[in-house]
Amino acid sequence: MNKSFQHVALIPDGNRRWAKKKGLPSMIGHEKGSSAFEQILEKSLELKIPYLTFWGLSLDNVLKRSKTEISYIYKIIESQFQKMILDSRIYENKVKVVVLGRYQEYFPEKTKKIIAEIVEKTKNHNHYHLTFLLAYNGTDEMIDCCQKIKQSKEKNITEKTIKNNLWTKNLPSVDLIIRTGSEDDPHLSAGFMMWDSAYAQLYFTKTFFPDFKKKEFEKCILDYFERQRRKGS
Question: Active-site residue 144, yes or no?
């Protein structure tokens, strides 16, 4: 992997639409999305991508969707993290798992306990970095950042000041954002990683996330390397 290419962020859209198209309950779409994530993790390790960030659940989802659906999603997340605790690839590849967002305020205690376990077990890993955004909105992150700076009474506010007060302060800038299931409606949501994505390339797929597999993920990465990046020059 090119040394200048470090960080891929994935917005997995289309679980519910995938299920609706097949006449299935939305919960099945979320289950299939979880399976798709496992393939993306495997391919990202094969491609030696140092940082992979996965937007597992937005704060808007938590607050606006039905309690039945969100409770089911919590169970899927719990199951996914339990699998990672037992996944030998996490330990063989020294993958550090980090979780950011307001999940501590909303998730069930059992789910939070399992998340805490994988975070603790991998805290000293440093070869690969797998970040989950749970109960996360980018606008929420920026408001929290501004409040921290205000409380610090910092007078000389620089780019470094802002970065150091973000939840994502330990992550490098995002090189590529992939959003699935949105080719016909290309957009970001809720200020997704707005500071870290200032120079990010964007890739929107037609494929709903449950059908987003290794081959298409690799295609997105290869497309990135075919683009000419100017960064304002």
Answer: no
Classify residue 206: in a domain, yes or no: yes
pTM above 0.90, yes or no: yes
User: What CATH number did the domain enclosing 51 receive?
Assistant: 3.40.1180.10
In the chain, the largest separation of any two C-alpha atoms, in whole Å, equals 57
User: Over its length of 233 residues, how does the chain's per-residue pLDDT go in tens digits?
Assistant: 665 789 999 999 999 999 999 999 999 999 999 999 999 999 999 999 999 999 999 999 999 999 999 999 999 999 999 999 999 999 999 999 999 999 999 999 999 999 999 999 999 999 999 999 999 999 999 999 999 999 998 889 999 999 999 999 999 999 999 999 998 999 999 999 999 999 999 999 999 999 999 999 999 999 999 986 555 55
2, 15, 60, 61: the active-site residue: 61
**What SS3 state is found at 87?**
coil
- Decide if 230 is inside a domain: no
- Domain presence at residue 127: yes
State which residues form the domain around 83. 7-136+173-225
Residue 61 designated active-site:
yes
* Active-site residue, selected from the candidate residues 13, 140, 175, 196: 13
Element (H, E) at 120: helix 109-121
Tally of domains in the chain: 1
**85 Cβ contact list (under 8 Å, min separation 6):** 114, 117, 118, 121
Sign of the torsion formed by the C-alpha atoms of 129, 135, 138 and 140: negative
